Amino acid sequence: MAIDGPLKVNVQLLRGSDPAIGPGKALVLDAIARTGSISAAGRDLKMSYRRIWLLVDSLNQAWIEPLVETRVGGGKTGGAQLTPFGEDVLASYRGIEARMVAAAAGADFDRLIAAIKPED
């Protein structure tokens, strides 16, 4: 939900100076939950396997528990899924995004949108 109409919400939670989670990592978690595979999630997001694997590793290292668990193998025995903790982190992150979008609604937001010059 990083973008809702003309409003872009970019929430990042930092671990030191590195993002523990942000819009891109949330998309990775969504894609893994949807596809059941790191490689399929990478294809879905048009990322190389190496790039998505590094993001998953970063996610798993940033939190007190892993967010993604993998199963070695192929076909029906292999794959990846969010841990219950990962599902909770993702849901909490999406909740923060939704509340920020909702908080922006109102007269001030409407006044700013009305003052944006239309594209040529």
Please give a structural write-up.
The longest helix is centred in the last third of the chain and has 21 residues, at 84-104. The relative contact order is 0.15. The strands form three sheets. A two-stranded antiparallel sheet has the order 1-2. A two-stranded antiparallel sheet has the order 3-4. A two-stranded antiparallel sheet has the order 5-6. The mean pLDDT is 90. It contains five helices and six strands, in the order E-E-E-E-H-H-H-E-E-H-H. Strand 3 and strand 4 form a beta hairpin. With 120 residues, the protein is of the alpha+beta class.
Give the secondary structure arrangement, pairings included.
Blueprint: E1 3-4, E2 7-8, E3 13-15, E4 18-21, H1 23-35, H2 38-44, H3 49-62, E5 68-71, E6 79-82, H4 84-104, H5 107-114
Antiparallel strand pairs: 1-2, 3-4, 5-6
Helix pairs in contact: 1-2, 2-3
Order of strands across the biggest sheet?
Answer: 1-2
The proportion of residues in beta strands is: 15-25%
Number of domains in the coordinates? 1
- In the CATH hierarchy, the architecture is Orthogonal Bundle
* Radius of gyration (Å): 17 Å
Order of helices and strands: EEEEHHHEEHH
**Unreliable sequence segments:** none
Q: Determine and state the CATH class.
A: Mainly Alpha
Which term fits the overall shape? Answer: elongated
CATH topology: Arc Repressor Mutant, subunit A
